[in-house]
Design goal:
single chain; about 290 residues; mainly alpha; 2 domains; about 0% strand
Length: about 290
Amino acid sequence: MFGLGLLIQSVFLIKNDLRKNIWWFLGALAPSLVLGILSFAYDFIDDSIKLDNAGTYFLLLIVYIIFIVFFINLFFYEAIQGINEKILLVWTLIFWYAYAVNFGPFLWLGIIFLFPTFIVVIVSFAPSSLDYFWKAFLYGWFLFVLIFLAFIQVKSSNLHLYLDPHLFLDQRKITASYDYLTAFSAGMIFLSIALYGYHLLCFWPLPAQNQSLKDRFREIREHAINLGAKYSDYQMEFVEALIIFFLIGGIFLGNYYFKIASSNLIINLGIIGSFLYSERPMRRGA
């Protein structure tokens, strides 16, 4: 089910371009399928080589990793989510709610995150024309928040069991207590973390071996421009931004103090709602 989660999530990430890129998608899938089929066929034919449970799951892990590597390389930019200021504002509110729930509202580390939060609020409430730098900066913030929320959800649920390499190799420790849906969800999250984490890692400033610092910063600039292209120029009305800020912020604040519903449920509903609500016509003159 972990592998099925990987596969379904990969289709979902490129659903708009799947028909156009079907052969590239099959090309990403083929190496891992070939390796898996040949390995298990060889194990079945040759009685002298029999994989135990740990060996089988280790082989599956290698197959999954190969698929992820090929998928990310073939759909590096096509697979990432387009965003706008609605999504950014909602996800920033979700971030602070998740941060407060897991680390407390006054942890000093939160000071670092005030600057991107301030930029998101300004962009959401004031008409603005952003250049590629600020679009890339805001997309980088979105990547960070997405990975942060993914790790928080994994940490606070039983999903982390399927992402632990030691437990993954001994499924008997987890299959007795946790269902297939958990493994399916873990596969989906694992692919998202790998994809968006790699994009965030591309901003690492240190050059590779035999690469000049100038060339490295040129690569970072090109990556920033490509990410900036994923940021929509859609702009909200002031009243709309105000409603989102106080309504959703009020829900998070109320649930933080009164514990009406599970924090995981509130976070998931906020994430789903942000994407469902974000598809709106652009404002005239935007």
